Amino acid sequence: xxxxxxxxxxxxxxxxxxxxxxxxxxxxxxxxxxxxxxxxxxxxxxxxxxxxxxxxxxxxxxxxxxxxxxxxxxxxxxxxxxxxxxxxxxxxxxxxxxxxxxxxxxxxxxxxxxxxxxxxxxxxxxxxxxxxxxxxxxxxxxxxxxxxxxxxxxxxxxxxxxxxxxxxxxxxxxxxxxxxxxxxxxxxxxxxxxxxxxxxxxxxxxxxxxxxxxxxxxxxxxxxxxxxxxxxxxxxxxxxxxxxxxxxxxxxxxxxxxxxxxxxxxxxxxxxxxxxxxxxxxxxxxxxxxxxxxxxxxxxxxxxxxxxxxxxxxxxxxxxxxxxxxxxxxxxxxxxxxxxxxxxxxxxxxxxxxxxxxxxxxxxxxxxxxxxxxxxxxxxxxxxxxxxxxxxxxxxxxxxxxxxxxxxxxxxxxxxxxxxxxxxxxxxxxxxxxxxxxxxxxxxxxxxxxxxxxxxxxxxxxxxxxxxxxxxxxxxxxxxxxxxxxxx
Length: 488
Ligand code: TXE
Hints:
Elements: E1 14-16, E2 19-21, E3 28-33, E4 38-44, H1 48-65, H2 70-86, H3 88-99, H4 103-124, E5 132-135, E6 140-148, E7 151-155, H5 161-174, E8 178-182, H6 189-200, E9 208-210, H7 215-224, E10 230-234, H8 237-247, E11 253-257, E12 263-266, H9 272-284, E13 296-300, H10 301-316, H11 336-351, E14 355-358, E15 377-380, H12 387-390, E16 397-403, H13 406-414, E17 418-419, E18 421-425, H14 429-438, E19 443-446, E20 461-462, E21 465-466, H15 471-477, E22 479-487
Bound molecules: ligand TXE.
């Protein structure tokens, strides 16, 4: 479609001041369905002017929203959550069509979690208490106000579209801010549908504004806006570094949740069957496109050969198929460029002398020949410092290698630039404590993976980001602390 006409498709529009509107420039971006490679709609490529309009709308809503009682904010957030649950099928189908993930996964995980995000922060805000300190012997009392920042920016990626979009928006508005938000241009659909739900739930106009568009235009305009005072971003590490640079001279508050290359460390004394089943999931859930996936598997040498055989057998039995089919385990990758990126790492693995134990090829799904399907791939690496073991591939590709001692595996686990999560499989308590203390990661799972309690801090160290989301950490990020000292 040409960039000078409004799409006939019941198209995605920006959601500004409670209204669905076209972008000022009338510039549009094609939106692809990864399961068949076809364009199925268009989204605005919003300019600086659209971001400014969204900002003005947020700014106007702020005085009233920041003074809305906590009970009222809570009531609206919980209402949004209920409406998401009532629209589960519609949202799950839209998410799957946009992203390529199995509908069953979107129904079971993505959309329920988006609903939980609103419910959780709707409740959490009513429990978010200020601190006070009596300065004994000085006849003074200090108390700390937690005040909303004003207008904040939320920028989210394509892998868990609504799940991560709402993970930012819910605490931001719960804390009394107004938001200019941008979902990934690759997966805009559920964010668009969320606008309708927010209006229906009675969220006042301008509290949430959603602008669609490319990172380099719309996203950049949000980050560059001098009066959008905080940015919560999830996405690639290189983008995070760029955002930090742009935001630094304006002293913006930043929360950056970036990439990962997470170790999955398996000791011989673990509960084997549980470990094996969970490792298949932690390697390939969502086509391996989760920043928390355990993409580097290290196995104690005494069980390495057995694990290798059992794991490969299970991986070979995973069904790659159309996302709407109920027995599909692995759907389509999110986009053609991303498929090409993931495939390039399989080539690199071969060049590096690694062995492809299974997978490695594209899959043609009958009836959907132009979709972006890839076999789940297991790569046996000879050393831990090869590129496929160091760089984030972010697809259905894992590496495996054996290790001898706890010290060896700890060193290899920490020898990457990332530090998001780590998984440890062992029944040895002392080892669990030693290793959990020393693993360089924001999250350590022991004998489980991806078990989330929304009260806990979420985020990474090193190139995996700055700051923590979740629970009161998120509410602290979206507020400014002000101490008041009164002498009496
Ligand atoms: O992410 P980008 P991409 C990793 C993964 C993937 C790589 C690149 O390895 O292959 O990152 O993915 C917006 N100013 N992760 O290119 O570009 C963009 O529009 C402001 C890990 O898709 O970082 C989108 O909304 N915003 C990750 C969001 O940033 C900008 C999940 C993320 O896009 C911008 C996704 C700019 N200059 C990818 N440029 C995770 N941690 O879960 C882009 N954006």
